[in-house]
Amino acid sequence: MVYQTLRRYFHMASIGDQSYRFLFKRPPPGEVVAFDCETTGLDVAKDDIITIAAVLIKGDRIVLREKFEALVRPDAIIKPDAMKIHRLREADVENQLPIRKILRDFLYFIGSRPLVGYYLEFDMKMIDKHVLPFIQMGLPNQRIEVSNLYYDRKYGNAPPGTTIDLRFVSILKDLGLPNLGQHDALSDAVMTAMIYIVLRDMKKRGARIERERVRPLADAIEF
Asked: Model pTM?
């Protein structure tokens, strides 16, 4: 704990732009932010963000009036496969601001709160490559991956050989949550927030997600 505190103060003092010191402050109690990005493709080095959205979670409530949503003019061409997924064309984003013009508002929205996401590592890498020129490091926010929370509640005690399904639609279905339509950044952020709240509550109660029982091989053999 002491090491983490000292490390935090070191980074706060050494960031390039001191106006971003707020990123290292203690986050408001009970508050996290769920966020999602849609991109031109899946190559972090070559592709770019085309839409980004985030919603605030306070305790067990998703505060939709406190949200961030922006279309972005990317520095990369939108790949056809990506276009089929999020249905955004070059013409839809050509008049929008580039991410470097939007990033400050996004950072002030999330502040120092923990960030919640689904396969968050990819989205964070896309954000961090643009954050780097601002603060000379990636975002210091704590990261919470909902697929890990789900795995713990459903597969944490599973026997070897269990089939693992961590698809977003499967998680929603298992938790009885509505599918608001995937590959829209705001909808994905809201659904991720719902998943987080349900799984966090299950963890507090020690509840688990039932798995389909697999019949022992011996029971499946007729003699």
From this structure: 0.86
